[in-house]
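User: My collaborator sent over this chain with a note saying "see what the structure looks like." That's all I know about it. Can you take a look?
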Amino acid sequence: MRRRVDWLTVRARRLGGARADAGMTTAEYAVGTVAACAFAALLYKVVTSGVVSGALSELLNRALHAV
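Assistant: Without extra context I'll predict from the sequence alone. Here is the result:
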C-alpha cells in the first residue's frame, strides 16, 4: 500500500503543475537574448551604413564647432 501512495504522490506532483514549466523561464530568457542580439545587429548595420554614418558625423561636427 505504501508503494502505491508513493507512486500516486509522484504522479500528482508531475501532473499538478508545480514543476510543469520549470524550464520555461530559461527558454524565455534565451529567446529574449537572441532577439536582443538580432536587434543590436540590425541597429549596428543601420548606424554604420554610409548615409547614417555621414549624417551622424556631420551632426557631431556641427555640435563640436558650435561652441
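A starting point for your reply to your collaborator: Residues 22-67 form one domain.
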